[in-house]
Specification:
The protein is an alpha+beta fold and 68 residues long. The protein contains two helices and three strands, in the order βαββα. It has a single domain, classed as 2-Layer Sandwich (Alpha-Beta Plaits), CATH 3.30.70.
């Protein structure tokens, strides 16, 4: 199954909020933490990926919640 990144941020709070909204909508969302712990997490980002088939729905949900 092909996945798409629908959101990325350096904010744990924004990522947690986005993940909650997507899970509540029944979307199988996963986060990928690319923060660099060796540099006090100053570099990198956290990504949220969803199945390609849910990409449009996920983006709409996040846009309506004003997270994007």
């Amino acid at each position: 199954m092909e996945n798409e990144t629908v959101f990325f941020s350096v904010s744990q709070i924004k990522v947690m909020t986005a993940m909650h909204l997507l899970k509540e909508a029944g979307i199988d969302a996963h986060k990928i933490d690319k923060m660099d712990s060796a540099h006090a997490q100053l570099f990198g980002e956290i990504q949220i990926i969803v199945p390609k088939s849910d990409e449009e729905k996920a983006r709409k949900i996040l846009a309506e919640a004003e997270i994007l």
